[in-house]
Amino acid sequence: MLYLIGIGLSDPEDVTVRGLELIRSSARVFLDAYTSILSVGKDRLEEFYGRPVELADRDLVEQGDVILAAAQSADVSFLVVGDPLGATTHADLAMRARQRGVAYRVVHNASVLTAVASCGLQLYTFGETVSVPFWDAVSRPSSFLDKLLGNWERNLHTLCLLDIRVREPTMESLLRGRPEFEPPRFMSCSVAAEQLLALLAEVSAAEDNADLLAESDAAELRNRLNRRKQLPPPERLLTVGLARLGSPDERIAACSLADMASRDLGPPLHSLVVPAPRLHPVEAEFLRQFADTEADAALVDASAAER
Amino acid sequence: MLYLIGIGLSDPEDVTVRGLELIRSSARVFLDAYTSILSVGKDRLEEFYGRPVELADRDLVEQGDVILAAAQSADVSFLVVGDPLGATTHADLAMRARQRGVAYRVVHNASVLTAVASCGLQLYTFGETVSVPFWDAVSRPSSFLDKLLGNWERNLHTLCLLDIRVREPTMESLLRGRPEFEPPRFMSCSVAAEQLLALLAEVSAAEDNADLLAESDAAELRNRLNRRKQLPPPERLLTVGLARLGSPDERIAACSLADMASRDLGPPLHSLVVPAPRLHPVEAEFLRQFADTEADAALVDASAAER
User: Fold this and answer.
1) What number is the ipTM of this complex?
2) B128 and A130 in contact by Cβ < 8 A?
3) Residue B29 pairs with which residues in a beta bridge?
4) Residue spans in chain B of domains classed CATH 3.30.950.10
5) To the nearest whole angstrom, how far is the Cα of B177 from the nearest Cα of chain A?
6) CATH of domain B113-305
7) Per CATH, the architecture of B2-110 is what?
8) A6-50: pLDDT as tens digits
9) Which residue of A186, A238, A265, B92 is surrounded by the most CB atoms within 10 Å?
């Protein structure tokens, strides 16, 4: 039997009582170590569970053979930060288990997708969740902005999940054919805000040059520009940064997008929310407790007043 | 201190280890008994926690005084099925605690909003969540259909949370001025499907009579009709029924809306999903395991093929 067990968001004690029983009675225990992380390391988990924990990197999970072969003859626990089927790769593991005749069972747990309610925004007024990837020299994906605008137009909040890079091989090591790994990277709210600011600045720049483009390109570009222009300027666009949700040193900050680019919310993991343009008064009242300055509080109040 | 503690979706063992510690060290323990339920009663919880549990009905929570007064001088646990801030009323309780100078802390847990991934549909392709209320002789709310269509148009799934009525006073008893309560009611997937079928039938009927209405009404009506007409006929509209998610006798069924109206998925709680018109192949492959008949499986395959 394969148990896909959510271990929550922060500490070893966030596992459920049932999850802990199953971990302790499993022959082998794997931990997904690349889609998310807890604030504690493998050692603390092993100590708390009283069991050895094997780290599973992307290859081990995506190939799946080691885990599924073990689960064919004994109980195996596969631990996931958050709720187990939140990432495509874990749904895929469950499906392949089934194809090989290995029964699986999911033990649910908290997820950032609902823990985000700690900022006071109501879950039923969130639209589609988006992922913000790290930009690099060759690639600057921006499709998340279009999804964000789709939510904004319908007065829905957007939760932005921020990129995590764990065990990424360096370009040089790939060329040498012997992989060495980059240090892990976790996108902060300030980096996410910087990327969003850069995108919005590009919109303005592109607008100035739209008449240089071929007519068909220009029409499509103008359409995108018009959608993006709905957003207020960065100094008046409210954002909410969430760091270490569910942990004792959780930190939530509500401020403008422009300010978020220079806020330090401390160690990972971070998530960013772009609230809907018009907040419910109760949402605004709750959110105001996370405004550090008078300017931040005024911005929250303005979002409620525009309703 | 007020602890808002999520207790998960099904069994007493679904509480987290931290949640259990806090419950056991609290002076008083309240259980929200009206926004959702576990599959077990108060007795099983008390036995498992080793603490008396006080049921909190809507009035007790919305007035809040009893709970907040207790939390002013001692540790109080307020237990909620799912993740604690999922319902507006609990965010409101946290805010009023803060206003009275009572510190609160949230202990997160699993929620149907993410456990729904057990059917194989990816969480990041869900749009806005909707609530389907029971209809009665005087009121037939239908705004959830417009939200569902908003998701459908953007190729997003819709999770429909189905109505729960606990401790509703009878009309007669209200007239007599001494409340007596209706037996609790939990909307099943089949009742939700029936209401949706009735709404869609009304669309067809209204269409036939649109020319009888005043011109301005007719234009608005025609706009709504045109949006609703995007949906395929009920025999070809794929739905997913989810019953007792996260419990050992969880039941998931994928079939047409027309068929869902006569499927019996057993005891509560139920939720209904209307998947996006075009599924990812991996979503369809996962979902197919919940198709009971060949016709159901063909409907799932058709949703993937249209992508």
Assistant:
1) 0.91
2) no
3) B77
4) 113-305
5) 32
6) 3.30.950.10
7) 3-Layer(aba) Sandwich (3.40)
8) 999 999 999 999 999 999 999 999 999 877 777 788 999 999 999
9) A238
